[in-house]
Design goal:
The relative contact order is 0.08. Strands 11, 12, 13, 14, 16 and 19 form a 6-stranded antiparallel beta sheet that branches. Strands 15-21-20-17-18 form a 5-stranded mixed beta sheet, with no helix packed on it. It has a 4-stranded antiparallel beta sheet with strand order 1-2-3-8, with no helix packed on it. Helices cover about 20% and strands about 40% of the residues. A hairpin with a 5-residue loop joins strand 4 and strand 5. By secondary structure, the chain is of the alpha+beta class. The two termini are about 40 Å apart. It folds into 4 domains: about 140 residues, Immunoglobulin-like (Sandwich); about 100 residues, Immunoglobulin-like, CATH 2.60.40.2550; about 100 residues; about 90 residues, no CATH class.
Length: about 475
């Protein structure tokens, strides 16, 4: 059987699956919702790229593809929900102008932790088959105001039909990806707010939704909307932002509910990446920056190069593209101007102070994580440290001959998320040379097989199995405590 390779790109409850050489490419997104009578459910969206499917000729002389899908929902290793079906493409007159096709499923589930298993194959090329597992949680407390996951939409239109994409009088076609290319000029989204009437009947709230930079966590003032809402069984949010002027970079869409005291009582976010090649950004203003009496004036050429390189963990895509040419040219004036630009953009009036704080952090990661061939700020642990600060807890194992050396970092709070973990390990069995293997933080690497890979040191060949008791007792303990 031909083995599919899967590329995982995680965001809030998002996994994208790429399968096969030329063959099957599909994306899966999944979201959690509730109902007025507290009957939570999981909603899955599966989008298959039309040009990645093998087609056969039909009796009507057109072409059609067929994808076999099995979705299993497990709780404590027991299958509690199952759906097996074939997803058929539209019939095309030829195979030159193929379109993507999509399906949606819903599963009623109680609050709790689950594992979803996806089995996917091209029915016209059955050698292309694989299995993906992903943990998820449904959590809608009945005694507090909470928000559903946020769905990005490809389109939405008023509709009285009763098809699978209809919700609250609209047909909503999901955008099953977190990458928004230049061709996409609107960020449309949908979410629901629950329990306002139950928790605070006849009260009013402030509903805010905005775009936040994922690197600096700065709210973008040009992308902020808010409105007053009154208590209801379910409050529906269906809206959009014009993102023609949103530069390339990594972002969060945030939805918040505040009470009369301006306190945030519920919040939800969804991560996305933006590529905007039509927008040059504000990098053109760098050449006019004065540096003579600035903090950047004291550095020599080699120090400036290092100062620019060490910013990599906290730069956006536009800045990364710019620094490639900057480091190639090695112009001291331009590097000084860019260093000022970088910190002034993020911290107006405090650029010198913020750079000094960051510089100390860089010195620290260089001392702790540098290897003979890599500066600390270029290592995975150094990058995570510079992006999110020092972890609150570190659990280390470098003495068990059944496992590769590993570290598990715990952050009580990262960005808008609580209790985020990062798993580093050394597949070369070198204690101070660790790579990021897995994280439960949105936007970072996520590998469902991370425990297997750490314990694979004890395998003599590919057919060996690993002691499941050991995995559960040690790795699960280190990750979950």
């Amino acid at each position: 059987m031909k083995k599919l390779t899967y590329l995982f790109v995680f965001s809030l409850l998002l996994v994208s699956v790429e399968a096969g050489a030329k063959n099957l490419k599909a994306y899966l997104s999944y979201y959690t919702f509730n109902t007025p009578d507290n009957q939570p459910y999981l909603e899955t969206h599966i989008s298959v790229l039309g040009n990645s499917v093998q087609y056969i000729k039909t009796q009507s002389n057109s072409y059609q593809g067929s994808i076999g899908l099995t979705i299993l929902i497990k709780k404590e290793d027991a299958v509690i929900k199952a759906e097996k079906f074939n997803l058929l493409s539209p019939e095309f007159p030829d195979t030159l102008n193929l379109k993507n096709f999509i399906d949606q499923k819903r599963f009623n589930l109680a609050n709790g932790k689950y594992t979803m298993q996806i089995i996917i194959q091209d029915n016209n090329n059955t050698s292309n088959k694989d299995i993906v597992n992903q943990d998820f949680e449904i959590n809608f407390p009945t005694n507090s105001i909470n928000i559903s996951d946020i769905i990005f939409l490809e389109s939405y239109n008023k509709s009285s039909s009763n098809n699978q994409f209809n919700r609250n009088g609209y047909e909503m076609i999901p955008f099953v990806n977190t990458f928004l290319p230049t061709s996409v000029n609107k960020l449309s989204f949908y979410a629901e707010i629950y329990n306002t009437q139950k928790v605070a009947p006849n009260e009013s709230f402030l509903l805010s939704y905005y775009i936040q930079n994922a690197e600096g966590l700065n709210k973008l003032n040009s992308f902020v909307q808010q409105k007053k809402i009154n208590s209801k069984d379910i409050i529906v949010l269906l809206n959009e932002f014009d993102i023609n002027l949103l530069p390339s970079g990594n972002y969060y869409l945030i939805v918040e509910v505040k009470n009369r005291n301006n306190e945030i009582i519920a919040s939800k976010s969804n991560y996305f990446q933006r590529s905007n090649k039509s927008l040059g950004g504000d990098l053109s203003t760098i050449s006019g920056i004065s540096y003579d009496n600035s903090f950047a004036a004291k550095y020599n050429s080699q120090q400036l190069i290092e100062n620019i390189k060490c910013l990599s963990p906290i730069t956006n895509q536009n800045e990364r593209d710019y620094t490639k040419s900057l480091l190639a040219n090695k112009d001291d004036i331009q590097m000084r101007q860019y260093l000022i630009y970088f910190w002034e953009k993020r911290n107006p009036g405090e650029s010198a102070v913020k750079w000094a704080e960051y510089e100390q952090q860089v010195k620290l990661v260089n001392e702790k994580f540098s290897t003979p061939y890599q500066k600390g700020y270029d290592t995975d642990r150094g990058i995570i440290f510079l992006k999110y600060g020092p972890p609150n807890n570190i659990r280390t194992n470098d003495f068990d001959n059944r496992a590769f050396p590993y570290e598990i970092w715990q952050y009580y709070k990262v960005k808008n998320f609580s209790n985020r973990k990062f798993v580093f390990y050394s597949p070369d069995n070198i204690k101070n040379d660790m790579v990021l293997l897995h994280s439960n933080l949105v936007g970072e690497r996520n590998d469902p097989e991370w425990k297997f890979k750490i314990l694979s040191r004890s395998m003599k060949n590919a057919d060996d199995t690993i002691d499941s008791d050991y995995i559960g007792q040690r790795l699960d303990s280190d990750f979950n405590e």
